Amino acid sequence: MKRKGIKNLIIDFGGVLIDLDRDRCIRNFEQLGVADFGDLIDPYRQQGFFMELEKGLITASEFRNIIRDRSNKLFTDKQIDAAWNSFLVGIPTYKLDLLLKLREHYVVYLLSNTNIIHWKWSCANTFPHKGFRVEDYFEKMFLSFELHQAKPEKDMFETLLAETGIVPEETFFIDDAPANCQTAQSLGISTYTPEAGEDWGHLFK
């Protein structure tokens, strides 16, 4: 289970822990009448007003109003949130069990580009497992919408390093976006880029 010389793990959320369905999300937004939605939503990094939501630069209410303006229809908050949350599939329970086991050997952090709508849904629907809650899986969580920072910019990683005091050379980062891993490597952090849906638990066997 223990990787040589590694004391800390930094783990991404989307695509690493939680499975994603971009095509389903696009279809659902197109049904709401949002044009060019596929050009704005990305598996690794959002664009336009979606990135503003990810960075916490606009509120959830402002985001929903933009959707209404673009579609020129008065959809409810519930309809918009359902379409947006359809991007998220779920966290396989074996990954939740793995996180709990990893915490016995490492200090585990979450570093994620995410937004308040996705995060609230995930906390309520994907992390509860065997009586555990999201707070039980990580020493601390670094979320883009709270920090007003986003990967792959270096400042988000520097915030984590400054607030935790961890040593980069003793840290291992798992993220499905190559650009994010490249930034981490530039700071001295070793990395791994899993494929979509991969069981990356083999890294610790």
TrEMBL record:
PANTHER family xrefs: ALPHA-D-GLUCOSE 1-PHOSPHATE PHOSPHATASE, FLAVIN MONONUCLEOTIDE HYDROLASE 1, CHLOROPLATIC
Sample GO molecular function, one term: hydrolase activity
Keywords: Hydrolase
Enzyme class: hydrolase
Keyword Nucleus attributed: no
Name of the protein described by the UniProt record: D-ribitol-5-phosphate phosphatase
Alphabetical list of InterPro entries matching this protein: HAD-like_sf, HAD-SF_hydro_IA, HAD_sf, PGP-like_dom2
Pfam families in the cross-refs: Hydrolase
EC number: 3.1.3.-
